[in-house]
Amino acid sequence: MSLFGHNSKKYNPKKPSHLAHAVVTGAGSGIGRSFALELAKRGGTVVCADINLSAAEETVALLNEIGAKGYAIQCDVGDAEQVKSLSEQAEILMQHPTTLVINNAGVGLGGKFDELTLDDWKWCMHVNLWGVIHGCHYFVPKFKQLGYGAIINVASAASYTAAPEMTAYNVTKAGVLSLSETLSAELRKFKIKVNVLCPTLVPTNIIKNGRLPGRYSNLANHALMNYAFTTSDSVAIETLDRLDKGDLYTIPQIDAKLFWLMKRTSPNLYAKFLGTSYKFFK
């Protein structure tokens, strides 16, 4: 099974599919919106969840424009009861059990370790880690009962690159990566597919809506919008294709792949390289 291969398999509406009835969190913009639109193009019905209801409704309007069915629900993924309600409402709205959940909602947080407050940590973990845990917790039993299903967890290359001044963000995304790898092994016998997405820069609103120190928030946002090696639409397409193939990992950009190989080929050398580079960055 290739880590870097690409497959263009498309949804066949005559055949039962894990893409047919989907719930996407953080669907109001960025990668979440791209996932919703690509699923719709492949024949799926999509429940678009977002903490910003008007943003989710905008995504649904775009689905309707291409003749697809979509539903908007307001949801704070860090709140277990709200995610439980989402899992129940989705089934009622689609008139069919959910067959795919994409745990995409996330926030950005940067800063030196000793500058972060515990409230910063809790805010980041509330969405980035607990949001994914809640999504898996409430949908996995439904998939088991259905007899098949799929999960896409949106992590980040930060889950393995361990870049300085991103401690809390790195920790949450590493948790998502580990959770996904564990679930993939545990759920395979139940015909439940798992894919974890680990991109580097993708043009989204994560910097705009995140908490980054003023000294480099503008620089980070400029890099995100101008030097990303992909688009959110391309990321969504590749991830869904890999899910169809049964691949666990989606690492969409060349820099993400390079860091992946460096970290795994020589982890000690990579750590030294990172520390040395950071001294010059400062």
Write the layout of secondary structure elements.
Blueprint: E1 21-25, H1 30-41, E2 45-50, H2 53-65, E3 70-74, H3 80-94, E4 100-103, H4 118-128, H5 130-146, E5 149-154, H6 158-161, H7 167-187, E6 192-197, H8 214-226, H9 232-245, E7 249-250, H10 254-265, H11 267-281
Beginning-to-end CA distance, first to last residue: 40 Å
Number of distinct helices:
11
Shape estimate: globular
Helix content: 40-55%
Q: State Rg.
A: 18 Å
CATH topology: Rossmann fold
H and E string: EHEHEHEHHEHHEHHEHH
User: What would you give as the CATH superfamily?
Assistant: NAD(P)-binding Rossmann-like Domain
Q: Name the structural class.
A: alpha/beta
Number of strands: 7
Strand content: 5-15%
The domain count comes to 1
Query: Which segments are poorly predicted (pLDDT under 50) over 5 or more consecutive residues?
Result: 1-16
Strand order of the largest sheet: 3-2-1-4-5-6-7
Q: Specify the CATH architecture.
A: 3-Layer(aba) Sandwich
For the record, the CATH class is: Alpha Beta
Outline the biggest β-sheet. Answer: 7 strands, parallel
Average pLDDT, all residues? 88
